[in-house]
Amino acid sequence: MLKITIYPRKKIKEYKKFLPELYEIYEVETQTEVAKIVENLKNKINDFPEVIQYIINEKLAPYFKNLTYFLENAKIESTSNIIERIFEDLAPKHVKKML
Fold first, then answer.
1. Which of 21, 46, 48, 76 can bridge 70 by disulfide, Cβ–Cβ 3.0-4.6 Å?
2. pTM for the full model?
3. What is the distance between the alpha carbons of residues 53 and 57, in angstroms, rounded to a whole number?
4. Region 70-88: what's the mean pLDDT?
């Protein structure tokens, strides 16, 4: 388990450059596509800093099917938060990325 660490701003800035690769998951429309992204991330795991490796290995990879099940089942909302759901439906994609 990763211990809680306070990272210096410089490190945080460095880690943030890896986030777009994680955010690719939000751009796809099927669990199969998510599985490919997760597999790609796992294949490149040694290229990531320890904290990103932890997120991929412990928080994302084991649970991605549960986290993205709404992609395969239209009866399931992508979020239970009403405001988020309205925002998803109404806001243009480029606005969502800015927020």
1. 76
2. 0.62
3. 6
4. 69
